[in-house]
Design brief:
443 residues, alpha/beta, Rossmann fold, 2 domains, eight-stranded mixed sheet, five-stranded parallel sheet
Amino acid sequence: MTTPASTLQQRIEERTALVGVIGLGYVGLPLSLTFAERGFSVLGFDVDNEKIEQLERGESYIGHLAESRIEGAMREQRFAATADFERLSEPDALLICVPTPLTSSLEPDMRFIVGTAERIATRLRPGQLVVLESTTYPGTTDELLRAKLEESGLVLGRDFFLAFSPEREDPGNTEFTTRTIPKVVGGVDRISGDLAESLYDQVVVSTVRVSSARTAEATKLAENVFRAVNIAFVNELKVVLRAMDIDVWEVLDAASTKPFGFMRFDPGPGWGGHCIPIDPYYLAWKANQLGQRARFVELAGEVNRWMPEYVLERSVEALAAQGKDIGGSRVLIVGLAFKPNVADDRESPSYRLMEEFERQGAEVAYFDPHIPVIRAGRQHAKWEGMTSIEINQETVGGFDLVVIATDHDEVDYGALARWAPAVVDTRRAVPRDAESAARIWPA
């Protein structure tokens, strides 16, 4: 007997299923193109009409995604984008890739997931598979999302299907792509998990099936909290070793020669990106809801959130060494992206630094070859439209202090150190042989 599940399974295997991707950002757009390149027809949804118009022109608004991929998918009519959410009933599978930020009190902000679920529920039809990819706390899929979708009157496991498969995007990583990164999949029930696993099997190198959506949600948190804790460790180590007059970078270089039992993480001015500064708080919040304390996780958050203040302290010292106060000084932030060689400035600690310097009365400018203009963002709207300066001996020499926040490969940090009166280097970007050319303040 034909059922919604068996019909969907056949369409997936024949690659005739229409895949809908909700949210065409750093996760949703690469995912859309990957499905299209593997022979599926894809309909992308986004509330930003400007993004839709750029995609229709074949333009990429994500630096590391080649426009040729978009143009190819459009040309072959495998990919289309729309802001019309009335069309949510068309796809056979709906993959949710919307933001999951924090509130001002560091609690999960679920409004994007809730809003998306409510939109889907009004248009949900029998035979649709819904997969949440947005990083979130365990229980989101089978509690919050399921409840919203069942408001449609349809029955989970019979009429519609629901699973969680966490995104594992690493912007700018040329070694691993959406297609070559194994995909963790967990269904709210068995048949939902089977369908989701089958769908991703068509487009990624391998799937990793886990017992439930909750397990899949916890897997993503474990991956990113691991990184957050280790970043906090090396950031704190940097501060402690400086008090002992020991170079943390030399220590890490030496420790990295051990062929087992050590995994290197490098310190910096804080943490950035959409995942690492946020996911620990999702885990801690869920633990608190159950009467537990994720104390180690919370402490890592405290350390990493404090790092911009530490960089500010070092900057005050560097300015004082020149006989200058921070108030009235001109400060250049080098690097807005949260990591090297990408245009991704989400949750970048550079914005915290800019805010702190401005609050102290400094005049702030920035340079980033990947971000010529600051775009609108949830947490840095005040900087929208600000443009990157050009760097040369004349412009850099006009600042009282240069703070290196991100170490892009194409920047000549040796020259930067020669031109600047003082440099606070949070990334060990300045070559060792350049340190005699200017006063370098490791941070």
